[in-house]
Amino acid sequence: MPSILIVDDLISIHEMLEAVIQPTGYSTAFATDGEKGLARYKAEKYDLVLADIDMKPMDGITLLKQLKLYDPGAVIIIMTAYASTESAIQALKFGAFDYLQKPFKVDELMQALKRGMEFRRTVAEREATGSAPAINAGDFEARLIGQSPKTKRLIAQLKKLSSAHTPVLISGELGSGHEVAAELLHAAGTPPDSPLVRIDCRLSSMDSLRAGLLGQNGAGGNWVREAKGGTLFLLHLQCLPKDTQSELVSVLRNNAHNFRLICATEEDLEKLAEEGGFNEELFYRVAALPVQMPPLRERLEDVPALLKEIAGKTSNPHFDAKLVEFTEDALATLRAYRWPGNLAEFRQVISQVVTTTETRVITSAQLPLRIHELADWPTLADYLAGQEKQYIGRVLHACQGDKARAAKTLNIDVARLG
After folding, report:
1. What pLDDT, on the 0 to 100 scale, is given for residue 172?
2. Residue 19 has what DSSP assignment?
3. pLDDT, the chain, mean
4. Which residues pair with 6 in a beta bridge?
5. Cβ atoms within 10 Å of 223's Cβ, excluding its own
6. Which domains does the chain carry?
7. What's the rounded Cα separation, in Å, for the pair 67 and 23?
8. Which residues contact residue 22 at a Cβ distance below 8 angstroms, ignoring those fewer than 6 apart?
9. What is the per-residue pLDDT across 79-123, written as a single tens digit (0 to 9) for each?
10. Structure pTM?
11. CA 383, CA 412: separation in Å to the nearest integer?
12. What is the C-alpha to C-alpha distance for residues 240 and 302, in angstroms, rounded to an integer?
């Protein structure tokens, strides 16, 4: 019989909840404060915890934190005063499954308990069956190319998160690999042939969002039903219209057990939420497990490996593109550029160069002009710090050895360049 631990300092609440819950097939146990509730959970462990937020000496938020430290998979529903929406959102921030605002109706209580139990059962079934993933652990390295520290940390994090059913929020600049990360999480964390439903919030119209994502009365639309048993992937989440964000909260509350939720954004959603530009409750519902994609300029050690991988998948009419090499000056130019479009821009540039080159060895001069013009120029601070030679040398390198151009850039006589 599914078990529920009720933690509230009012005996009358215990009696009322027991009278309502037990006839529906759940067993109940009670604790009158957070400390006793934590001790009882550790001693017996329950399928779900229903806890009041306003208790002493240990309140509901502290209990929530302690339970999540002890058992990250604990399913906890917080009860809070009707006017205390801020407390409810705080509970979500620290890992609560859901919240109920007092005074709540019996139907609201039973629906919340049902959702929590279904979520618990879904996670337990996945752990018990151990369904074989669609990819092996090595496939992470095959798709996330590079050996830089940031790339290694990203791969390790994604591997760790792949088996979790909790929502993941992938953040990072445009073109930094959101979709690859989402595809890896889906393939490694769901059974083979399970659906991956992608929704681009930037391109979807209000009508399509309402029909496919929201549906009626928080039930979810066609896309939500299609994602059952698999993954619902929302791209460019920051572009979701503000007036639909609260409706999406209802969809997620009602369907949390049906699919794995992965969202991607190029914006700092937490900052937007704090400033009122994004629904705060929605943010904490989607950001339980955050992943930050590093920009290419912070993992430049990966450039040689990326060049080899891209060239190997590109065709050239003159020779085998796998044999293409980039000179040291070409590598230096590629590393100096800021890559505002990140991996997407890098892949486009390299594919174009490898496809059109008539020489097997590619020099800096063969790279697009904008790669040179928008290179990361050294700052005047270097010069002021007494590093005149290093500063001049870096500018000369950025100008590809063109002394006249370097002298003009530095506003010095060309003779000083030697």
Report:
1. 95
2. H
3. 87
4. 30, 50
5. 22
6. 3-129 (3.40.50.2300), 138-294 (3.40.50.300), 297-373 (1.10.8.60), 380-417 (no CATH)
7. 27
8. 28
9. 988 656 788 888 999 999 999 998 899 999 999 999 999 988 887
10. 0.82
11. 13
12. 33
